[in-house]
Amino acid sequence: MTEDPTATLTRLRSSIDNIDAALVYLLAERFKATKQVGHLKADHGMPASDPAREEQQVARLRSLAEQADLDPAFAEKWFNFVVAEVIRHHTEVADSR
């Protein structure tokens, strides 16, 4: 007997909700780490942005995305969005010193 479509939808949405929650917590952990990086950079007069590191990360994440069957362009867009926020935070920390 096949599962009722409404039950299937509810089950799938529950799984999506759990994944979304995990992503939020993972992003929070990532930003805790980047906050520490921002303070370290500000303390030592380092620039908020590191284009060489960002380029390496884009290549690494695009490769991981391909392995995970995720659109590499999407992974790059996501990374660029996150990095822009990180740089904004780093700049704020540096400006407050």
Report on this model:
By secondary structure, the chain is an all-alpha fold. The chain is built from three helices and no strands. It has helices at residues 5-43, 51-67, 72-95. Helix 1 (5-43) packs parallel to helix 3 and helix 2 runs antiparallel to helix 3. It is elongated. The protein starts with a helix and ends with a helix. The mean pLDDT is 97.
Write a short abstract of this structure:
It comes from Microbacterium jejuense. This protein has 97 residues and is an all-alpha fold. It has helices at residues 5-43, 51-67, 72-95.
Percent range for β-strand residues: under 5%
State the secondary-structure class: mainly alpha
- Estimated helix fraction: over 70%
**Parts with pLDDT < 50 across at least 5 consecutive residues:** none
Distance between the termini: 66 Å
Topology as a string of helices (H) and strands (E): HHH
From the alpha-carbon coordinates, what is the Rg to the nearest angstrom? 18 Å
Main sheet properties: none
Number of β-strand runs: 0
Helix segment tally: 3
**What value does the average pLDDT take?**
97
Shape: elongated
